[in-house]
Amino acid sequence: QVQLIESGGGLVQAGGSLRLPCAASGRTFSSYAMGWFRQAPGKEREFVAAISKSGASTYYVDSVKGRFSISRDNAKKMVYLQMNSLKPEDTAVYYCNINPPTPDWGQGTQVTVSS
């Protein structure tokens, strides 16, 4: 079982960048594909990006391709989401989870992009 804590959110102007770390606990972290998800106000939670167990393969929702990058460090039990060229529509609470996700969501981290 993996427990996850997201951080790194904040307020940024459009065009800016943020890096979101997700710290994992548990001995089986490297056994799971991982993902980042987000939930904007009044909307359902959506998939943003995923990375395979080894980190060799990554996947993105079309709206963030070319702007966001997911990575992981299995030795440190960390997953990262590098977000560049941020847009106001990226404003949301961002969550990490295994992929496919379990129903156990953490607190998430708020990202707010001002225009």
Offer a few descriptive terms:
four-stranded antiparallel beta sheet; 0% helix; 115 residues; six-stranded mixed beta sheet; mainly beta; 10 strands
SS content category: mainly beta
Specify the biggest β-sheet.
6 strands, mixed
Oligomer state equals single chain
Unreliable parts: none
| Rg of Cα set | 13 Å
Question: How is this fold's topology laid out?
Answer:
Layout: E1 3-6, E2 10-13, E3 18-25, E4 34-39, E5 46-51, E6 58-60, E7 68-73, E8 78-83, E9 92-98, E10 109-114
Parallel strand pairs: 2-10
Antiparallel strand pairs: 1-3, 3-8, 4-5, 4-9, 5-6, 7-8, 9-10
Can you characterise this structure?
- With 115 residues, the chain is mainly β.
- It is built from no helices and ten strands.
- The strands form two sheets. Strands 2-10-9-4-5-6 form a six-stranded mixed sheet, with no helix packed on it.
